[in-house]
Amino acid sequence: MANSTSMSGFLLMGFFDDRKLQILHALLFLVTYLLALTGNLLIITITTLDYHLHSPMYYFLKQLSLLDLCFISVTVPQSMANSLMSKGYISLGQCILQVFFFIALASSEVAILTVMSYDRYVAICQPLQYETIMNPCACRLAVIAAWIAGGLSGLMHTAVNFSISLCGERVTHQFFCDIPQILKLACSSEFINEIAVAAFTTSTAFICLIYIVFSYVRIFSTVLRIPSAQGRTKVFSTCLPHLFVVTFFLSAAGFEFLRPPSDAQSGMDLMVSIFYTVIPPTLNPVIYSLRNEAMRAALRKVLSKEEFAQKKMYLKAIFKL
């Protein structure tokens, strides 16, 4: 183990000290990562190649999958490498980059989920104005705004968090550079600025959550007035997975970031972090694709031999240009 008092980086303790359990952890994370990678890449590919899915709903879903793909890649590969090499050291530069991209992508994902709820609200509650409101230009601007907002949030947290003086051993009981764990190492009350930034970010996320809940209250009140049971089922099958994703992601992240800091180390920190770093990017493709008939039909179409050959020729023609 590196001398934690003299190193400039951090020592991530991770899950286990036993070598066999470290290998098991790496294998489990590898399987989860491959599932997330495959599922999100499939959604990105399908929504790009199938012109029937070139609508705002699937455009935002593609952006969510891209964010999930990047989000899980920020923490999981590094954790697998640490377990396989039986070391947890991460340099200061790596930690800074990990915190920036983690916060930036998480904030962008909250923004995209909010935009997706607005898209569903307009589609169901204002269907006659849908094409006017959710035009391609507005959708692109919404996505750009989400990415920019995430980047600014990441910059604020990174700048403030790493301007704090740290005291004692730089050891964190986590498998990635997590801000709550780093704040435990802060000298006295120097982390007050980071708390202010975290309060601002949390307030913004809470506003997004309130807006999402308000949107779905309006949506469900409209859906209940639909005379067709089939129509209600179709709307609920589209909206409920989205609401589940938002609730699961924000509740897990909120529990970790809002609870008072404690010097006591607990396996709860590790388990909760998995709920908002690993599980959402892995479950999102399953939730959105398996319960969506249009996605399943598009997947069967893309994977069919004739269609696959056509797409292959199309991609070859693009790369030759």
Automatic annotation (TrEMBL):
What is the species listed in this Swiss-Prot or TrEMBL entry? Ceratotherium simum simum (Southern white rhinoceros)
Q: Which InterPro entries match?
A: GPCR_Rhodpsn, GPCR_Rhodpsn_7TM, Olfact_rcpt, Olfactory_GPCR
The UniProt entry lists membrane topology as: Multi-pass membrane protein
Under what name is this protein listed? Answer: Olfactory receptor
The source's superkingdom equals Eukaryota
Question: Where does the chain cross the membrane?
Answer: 23-46, 58-76, 96-116, 137-156, 195-214, 235-258, 270-290
UniProt keyword list: Cell membrane, G-protein coupled receptor, Membrane, Olfaction, Receptor, Sensory transduction, Transducer, Transmembrane, Transmembrane helix
Major site of localization recorded for this protein: membrane
Q: Which residues form the G-protein coupled receptors family 1 profile domain?
A: 39-288
